[in-house]
Specification:
This protein is mostly helical. The protein contains four helices and two strands. The longest helix has 32 residues, at 14-45.
């Protein structure tokens, strides 16, 4: 049972995914600090004279009905910044590396691999006179 769990953990990209989540979480903290320190004050310029910032009031006498637009814009900018940096720092170099160092056999399906094995075994049988030597 533990062997199956170990195989699950180390099969495929599970470890890579865990590393990506941890790095992504740390990176979000950096972008959030950038947004709170730079973007939010810039957006506050366009807000009213009160401390609420950019937005509008639905009902004049009820402060709870204030719709804040600033945090929505900040979240969208956070997403755009994170997506752009991840693309240009991780995805684009990985695609170039895969094109440069990747092999042509990476697009083979399981059936293709099995056919190649069958053909190689058939060639070995013909060359060895019906016997396989490994």
């Amino acid at each position: 049972m533990l062997k199956g769990f170990k195989d699950f953990l180390f099969h495929g990209n599970i470890v890579d995914l865990a590393v990506a989540v941890v790095i992504g979480t740390a990176f979000v903290a950096i972008v959030t600090a950038f947004s709170n320190g730079i973007i939010d004050p810039i957006l506050a310029i366009f807000g009213g004279t009160d401390m609420r910032g950019l937005g509008f009031q639905l009902v004049a006498d009820k402060p709870a009905t204030f719709v804040e637009i600033g945090p929505i814009i900040t979240a969208a900018l956070n997403f755009a910044i994170i997506a752009a940096i991840l693309y240009f720092v991780l995805v684009l170099p990985a695609m170039h590396a895969k094109k440069r160092f990747g092999s042509a056999d990476t697009d083979l399906t399981d059936s293709d691999v099995l056919r190649e094995i069958r053909d190689l075994l058939a060639e070995g049988k013909d060359a060895a006179g019906g016997r396989h030597e490994f």
